[in-house]
Each structure stands twice: as structure tokens, then as C-alpha cells.
Specification:
- Strands 15, 16, 19, 20, 21, 22, 24, 25 and 28 form a nine-stranded antiparallel beta sheet that branches. Strands 1, 2, 3, 5, 10 and 12 form a six-stranded antiparallel beta sheet that branches. Strands 4-11-6-7-8-9 form a six-stranded antiparallel beta sheet, with no helix packed on it.
- The longest helix has 15 residues.
- The protein is built from one helix and 35 strands.
- The chain is 4% helix and 47% strand.
- By secondary structure, it is mainly beta.
């Protein structure tokens, strides 16, 4: 199917085989019986072509060629672009640790005399070249009848990357943009989080309500049933660390891998899912998994909300996770009993030796809570509060233990 629509204020010639919602759950398979219409390159400023594909096998396969009198001028494969006239090629960059299962490839060519009247032919290359025919799935093909500007190119790539769960190359920080040119993933501000960039959101051509990265290593899936505002986005990524828990002083066991999200134009209420088998677990009984969401990149225990996961068929999930709009957010997984304490501590300084601050967050239990601060084995302070957080200040350097008892006689403690 070929149609003309307005997008990014440019003329777009768009060939769509499917309207995929997430990672090729619905798509066309390509074989020798599949027919894609050719496209004639006319006397214009140039051409910009975007493809999203998933090939079968590890061998290089041809996606399309631009031919003049049945002779290839340019050939684009799953691995490279080849200029037949100049006898040169450019390899696509692959991530060092893995091959992406779904590929987004952009080809931009300014018009020259050889291009006028040429034809863009799908899955046809040079028979003499050692490249296989394409076998696999084609999610989407976008053809613009001119050379797009840098920001326009990035807008199209952002749209396709979010739609199909693809991470744009981050060897240099590469931000994502909506159709208005607004930055919806600030790669410079979030440079530590460049792995498995994924998102949900709504734009002029997009209504993405559920996503998981096509190269996911943790099964993280976020979805919503809400009606989204235009240009509302929730985009997330991780720092690439191990899926392994570690014990940190003053806190429950925490996943080494950390996550960040950027939200635009709307608060989100979502369902969050993880694949439990992807965790390298500590296997301690009587503990549950919690999602810890902090509405700032810098950890602040008072601004952190804990959501307990349920489990079904090996999937950990919570279907009522809230995210605040127009913020950078950090999140992580902790493993703890159903009633526990999390803390953060600001050490005293030489100039203020009694200036230490200890923040505590109580998760689970029933208020009011009785909180005891023990210093070097002796009770220093006892407080009762209905809130699930408390702050102790004017503390000197020392070894502290926090003990909490709830209204039903349950208790927990942690050292700091």
C-alpha cells in the first residue's frame, strides 16, 4: 500500500506492510512470493529511505537497490551501503556485545544525474555480490522524496525506534525527538543510561501504549490503558550493569542495574513487568520484589515510592505504578521482606561534626510507627509517627541501628 500523508511538515511517501504496536508482534514475512511495489526516483532534490527489518539468519542480506537501466547504483543490505559507481561501501555500526535483532536503517542520497529516472527495487541487489536474498520480516518502510535535515532525520528515527523497540546508536549521545522537534529523551543529561532505550507515547502517527525493547535482557515491559495527550511520552533505559542483587549498608538488597526515565506532557499510570528468570537471584526466602521509583535522578529516599510486585507465570508485575510528568525519574528493583526500612545518610563534616542527617523510609506495616534510633548499642532517640518517613539530624559520626515497630506489633531493623 502506498499513500501520501503529512508528517513533520514534509511530503512523505509511505509504504506500510503492518502497523506494528510492539516489536513485530504483527508483521509480514518476506519470501519469494512477496511483492513490494518499486518506486521511481524523480527529478527532485534527493531521497531519504528508512526501513525497519528483522532478518532470519546471520548472513548479510539485501534490502533494496537503486537501479538505472537494471544496473545497481546503490545497494543497501542488512550490514552496509554499497556505491557501485565509486566501488566503495560503508558498514553499519554494530554494538560490541550483541547483534540487534531488529534493525532501523536510514539511507539519504542527494540527487545526481545518475539517480534521475532510477528505480528503487526491493530485495534486489547485484547477483555477482556475495549477499543473500532477504528472508525475514519487514515492519515499515518510509520514503521521503528529498534529503531530510538532521533534525527531521532524527525525528523519523525516534518515531520508528519507539514504535519497534529499537535503541538508536549511542556511541555518541543521540537524543530522541517528537514530531514538534521537542526533545523527549535527552541523551546528554541521561548519558549513563544508554542501553535498551524504549518508550510509550502518542504523536501524530504514534499511539504506543505498550513496549518492550527488541533486544531486552530483563523482560522490562511498560504499558498503560490511559488516553494519552499528544506528545505525551514515557521513555526509559538502563545503565547496562548486571542483573544481580547486592547488599548495601542501610538498605535492602538492590539490583546492580539502574534505570532512568524521562516523562513529557502527562502523568502516567502504568503496568510494569519484569521477567523473573533474568534476575541472578540471592534466593532468600520470605522476601518479595519491589519497584523503587524516585522522581529525581539523584537518589532521595523521601521522594521514592515502593511498589510491591505480584508474580504469575514467571512474570513480576505491578499494574498501578505512577510517574510524574516533565521529570527525570530513576527506578530500580529491591528485594526485601514485606515490612522493611530504607535509608539515606549525609555524613557530618569536619567543620560540623554533629551535622549528620539520617532519612528513613518505612515500607509496609500499619501506622502509627514507633521508631528507635540506637547509637553504639544505646537508645539515642524514640519517636512515634503516622507518616512512613522520618528524619534524624544533628548526628555525629558513629554506628547507628534503626528499629521500627508498627501498630500490629510487627518489627524490623537495619544498621547504618
Amino acid at each position: 500500500m502506498e499513500m501520501r500523508i503529512c508528517f513533520l511538515n514534509v511530503l512523505l511517501i509511505m509504504s506500510i506492510n503492518v502497523v506494528g504496536q510492539i516489536n513485530f508482534n504483527v508483521t509480514d514475512s518476506i519470501d519469494e512470493h512477496t511483492i513490494f511495489p518499486d518506486y521511481e526516483v524523480k527529478n527532485q532534490s534527493g531521497i531519504s529511505i528508512f526501513t525497519v527489518s528483522k532478518s532470519v539468519g546471520d548472513k548479510e542480506q539485501v534490502l533494496y537497490s537503486i537501479n538505472k537501466n537494471s544496473t545497481p547504483i546503490e545497494v543497501v543490505t542488512t550490514n552496509r551501503t554499497v556505491n557501485k559507481n565509486k566501488h566503495c561501501f560503508i558498514n553499519f555500526q554494530e554494538k560490541e556485545d550483541k547483534i540487534e535483532p531488529v534493525k532501523l536503517i536510514c539511507f539519504v542520497k542527494e540527487m545526481d544525474s545518475l539517480m534521475i529516472g532510477a528505480k528503487l527495487e526491493w530485495f534486489k541487489g547485484n547477483e555477482k555480490a556475495p549477499v543473500d536474498k532477504f528472508v525475514g520480516q519487514m515492519g515499515e518502510r518510509l520514503i521521503f522524496d528529498r534529503v531530510l535535515s538532521g533534525i527531521e532525520k532524527r525525528q523519523v528515527e525516534s518515531y520508528l525506534a519507539i514504535k519497534y523497540g529499537i535503541t538508536l546508536d549511542q556511541q555518541l549521545p543521540t537524543s530522541y525527538y517528537n514530531s514538534n522537534g521537542e526533545k523527549i529523551w535527552n541523551a546528554n543529561a541521561l548519558e549513563s543510561y544508554k542501553n535498551e532505550i524504549t518508550g510509550i507515547g502518542r504523536d501524530s502517527l504514534l499511539n504506543q501504549l505498550k513496549s518492550k525493547n527488541s533486544a531486552s535482557t530483563d523482560g522490562l515491559t511498560i504499558s498503560t490503558n490511559e488516553n494519552l495527550n499528544k506528545n505525551a511520552y514515557l521513555i526509559w533505559a538502563n545503565d547496562g550493569k548486571e542483573m544481580q542483587f547486592e547488599q548495601r549498608k542501610g538498605n535492602p538488597k538492590t539490583l546492580k542495574r539502574h534505570y532512568a526515565a524521562q516523562l513529557s506532557n502527562q502523568d502516567f499510570n502504568t503496568k510494569v513487568e519484569f521477567q523473573k528468570s533474568d534476575f541472578q537471584d540471592l534466593n532468600i526466602e520470605n522476601e518479595s520484589y519491589f519497584l523503587a521509583v524516585c522522581d529525581t535522578l539523584k537518589s532521595d529516599i523521601f521522594r521514592t515510592h515502593f511498589y510491591k510486585f505480584s508474580e504469575k507465570d514467571g512474570i513480576l508485575f505491578n499494574d498501578k505504578v505512577d510517574w510524574k510528568s516533565n521529570t527525570y525519574t530513576s527506578f530500580n528493583i529491591v528485594k526485601a521482606p514485606d515490612f522493611f526500612i530504607a535509608t539515606s545518610y549525609e555524613k557530618p563534616t569536619c567543620s560540623n561534626p554533629e551535622g549528620g542527617v539520617l532519612k528513613i523510609k518505612i515500607v509496609g506495616g500499619s501506622s502509627p510507627f514507633k521508631i528507635s534510633l540506637v547509637e553504639d548499642g544505646k537508645i539515642k532517640e524514640i519517636q512515634t509517627t503516622k507518616a512512613d518517613f522520618y528524619l534524624f539530624d544533628q548526628l555525629k559520626q558513629g554506628n547507628y541501628t534503626i528499629k521500627v515497630a508498627d501498630n500490629n506489633g510487627k518489627s524490623c531493623e537495619i544498621g547504618r
